[in-house]
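Exercise 7. Given the components listed, write out the predicted structure of the assembled complex. Treat all entries as one system.
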Amino acid sequence: MNSTIAGISYRAVIGRRRIWLLVLLPAALLGLAVLLRLVGSADERSAVVLMQTFAIGTMLPLVGLIVGTGVIGPEVDDGTIVHLLAKPISRPVIAQTKFLVAASLLAAFAAVPTFLASYLLVGTESGVATGFGLGALAGGIAYAAVFLLLGVLTKHAVAVGIVYALVWEGLVGSLVPGARQFSIQQWAKSIADQISTSAFLETDVALSFAVPALIVVTVGTVVWAGQRLRSFSLTGDE
Amino acid sequence: MTAQTVNAPQTATEAAAIELRQVSRWYGNVVAVNDVTMTIGPGVTGLLGPNGAGKSTLLHMMAGFLAPSNGTVTLNGRPIWRNHEIYRDIGLVPEREAVYGFLTGWQFVLSSAKLHRLPDPEAAATRALATVEMQDAKDRRIETYSKGMRQRVKVAAAMVHDPRVLLLDEPFNGMDPRQRLHLMDLVRAMGAAGKTILFSSHILEEVERVAQHIEVLVAGRHAASGDFREIRRRMTDRPHLFKIRSSDDRRLAAALIADASSGSVSLSEAGLEVQAIDFRRFTRLLPRVARDAGVHIWQVSPADEDLESVFSYLITRSTR
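Answer.
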């Protein structure tokens, strides 16, 4: 962790107009929760459905995409990353710092709003709010790592990320049972299910698989990103 | 082999030298740098070559931002690729303009000092900004800077830790003449202070004004190396090709071939083509011969004055 790099990264991601992109989805989630309360549909079932489909299913991967690729992708694209890399700092430390920045932003802009929205709907009932809050946190950390790696690996990180988030996580993960074992969303839901006692929430990925999988993916991708940065190459414009 | 000239006085610290040994770099089937061996020592070295010659590729390998496909690139014996400790000794000013536009000049240079973990980053940043004369604009965001100011603030960030080696990729590109002169003075002064400085350029005059030593790269190959006066002389003394149109080409041709300064003379519909071996003697000879022969000269034009042909001449000489 390097505080100078963290400071620059925070400013690059949430500085200026970019912050509105980050605020948009959590604001929509909280708005929906308020709306459901106002029309009197704030029950446990609707809370679980909203959290599963929108908070974990849509908001989390998209905020993860914006933040995870945003902490490094633009710098790689325009070459500013050279100012960080041409320093006597180990490249894995740079990758770890970028990851921590992305993970903390996901906690703030995805996990906390998830907790707040479900709390608005059902309070502490059946541990739904805590369960989804922690599930979103764990999933968010893994997304931060995966999208950070994408930002290092390819110049088309956003496009690849969208395909991954929507097609794999969204479509395949929810339709093909076998693929669910390898979906960050499903792992996040598995954690939520473990904490919450709600009968409306059920997952088919065992916690004993989900937790190690989250750790392996997170650590593995951050290490990979660090190694990739060690071999970062500038190819001439000529 | 590369003859090395050390023009700058040695400082108390050990002199830094970047050594390239039989370095090649290719991208698929395209060879960008071909078997280059050179040593960059203290003083200012200009890396000269036409666009696309492989200057950036070579400089990126010296800066640790590209792995050589073959050969070794070292700084005082230490490998540069995948060695982040090397940046204690190397400052890099990349060609691409991009800097963190949302930072002020002060924040940018200070962050560089902090990333180097300098004992007193504020003092170092102040000093670096003063060196490039950017104190007045230091509190403005970099995105409001002109190209020349950006370049200077990049130089300040690259030299904030007082590195022994400074690498600059096309540093004078796009600067206005005043800014250019200022940066040239700065580079010269750092070279005179014993630092090892290398900058790339495709403009001969630029290199000539700043560098004591020149390395010429053409089509990925190391075409020439040495003192700039030597290179300059070789560029002037090369055989020049002239196209001449006159009132009587045949008569003029006969008169010219009689003198030793003309190599070959060929006669065609379009006029005369004369290969001048001794450039100075030929330029004095031509008007005199024409006058004595009673021939009117309509047109004299150099057929190969562009930089490309100058460079390719150097290449044929260096490989002979």
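Discussion: Residues 3-230 of chain A form one domain. The radius of gyration of chain A is 18 Å.
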